Amino acid sequence: MQEHQDDFSMVFEGAAGQGVQTITSLLLPVLRKSGHHVFSCMEYMSRIRGGSNSTEIRLTGKPRRTYVSRIDLLLSLTPRAYERLHERLHEHTLIFAEEEKFGTHWDSRCIETPLGRFANEAGGAVYSNVSAVGVVLAVLGIPLERCTDYLRAQFAGKGEEVVERNIRAAQLGYEFGIQLPADRRPKLPEPAHENQRDSLMMDGTSALGIGAIAAGCNFICSYPMSPGTGVLTFLAARAKGFGIIVDQAEDEIAAINAGLGASYAGAKSMVTTSGGGFDLMQEGMSLAGMIETPIVVHIGQRPGPATGLPTRTEQGDLDLALHAGHGEFARAIFAPGTLIEAIETMQRAFDTAQRYQIPVVVLSDQYLLDAVSTIRVDEIKRLPAKPGIVETGKEYKRYAFTESGLTPRGVPGFGAGIVRVDSDEHDEEGLITESFEMRRRMMEKRLARLQTLRNEALRPTVIGNPDTAEIITVCWGSNRGVLEEALERLDDNRVAGLHFAQLWPLVRDTAGLLGNGRKKIIVIENNAQGQFANLLHRESGIDVSRRILKATGEPFSVEEIVEKLTEIAHGQST
Length: 574
Known about the structure:
Helix content is 38%, strand content 20%. By secondary structure, it is of the alpha/beta class.
């Protein structure tokens, strides 16, 4: 019934407070245990009650990491569903809803589904989302027992009565769903053959948190700001087990300064925020550059300016991260695009900050942070890290000149030396100076590490064969999954791709990777002007032929990238 036999897309729509996320959280583990590859993402309004939110679950024949526009099954809980989602529906979409709650667009695709009645029979309106899960499992042909076992484990702590009510709600939905005629039942992708017990299901927030723990992060200080707060709460929940000090500061200025203070004392510290919070951290970024003190800053991007769309997604803070802080100093910027990259990039960020004694920014976005997919256990690796702290002697000078520009880093109390730092310009011992010559040498010292940083920069991931392709499509951060799948669907050897997980500094041979001006370069970004396209041109001298941009607060869908690339490739051939 759907266009792609190896791909089935379900969307659940409802108001904040109706339990749409609960439907997804109950379905995902059951679907995964049934052997299917799953991917899920969400979009939601910035309100506690009301509005219209939705989550998407994809069942696919191979691992996927991206959003599709097409909806094969819609379960609607509010009258706003059709208004918001009708462009994503097709003629065979299954729509489960209560007619009185769906509005005036009821048609032959719709199936009257009395979730309210099922919930009341089970014990109250709160159980309607569990009944919805029962309906979906029946329609998909998945045994109810897999859900009831999960419900027993999930709600065991709330007492037997709550467990039984949830099971009853699921049973009522399931009994309804199995009555769907055979000719309307979807054909699902074949379950995966690999052992699902060897994989984990997680979101991007968890992956970044795992990476931070693997890197040895032992101090985090932040002021909550969506969507970056999840990393703070992830580490806070595991603070005792991993020896992490967690501090919720009064504002972002205090947060980054506390992080720098902890780092000065020897901690591996980080802060997490969003663009608006990072605005307040810029003086701290500059301080980190001057006192050569490492810190990792995670920015969960959302649309600005100002408050913008606080619960939506965007890649609009690259320029902010690149230029934050007054004066000139070295920094590094990373932007992972997969769960594996998130885990490894966070480790790389800490190692880079420690070794080069600089601030390092990790850019993610709401889409990446909230999206759920699977990762094999053996793909989670702890990367080697070089020691960042030395024991000081009596003659220790915190800013002693060296050929590389890097002075061995001491911390107070570890050795006989005095570890003196100052935000004013200073000499080798950290004492304030007004000497023009010392200023010149210190500036050269701080910037010299950029050369080594560039030499060791992370190379982009190659998709296809850029050497023989006529068109190279470039993306960064969370757009890796959509570009990979779009190029696979396009199946045109004239088009290849590059995904950058390190945005600054860029690798030295960036121009060569882009074909030295002999290729057509396309850049995909979730912002309005093409911030990375501008950076590529500035650093490589290569002109970007086309920018595929989106700044609505939505991620790119596979369909729209395929459409754009098909149009470009066709134009190239003619």
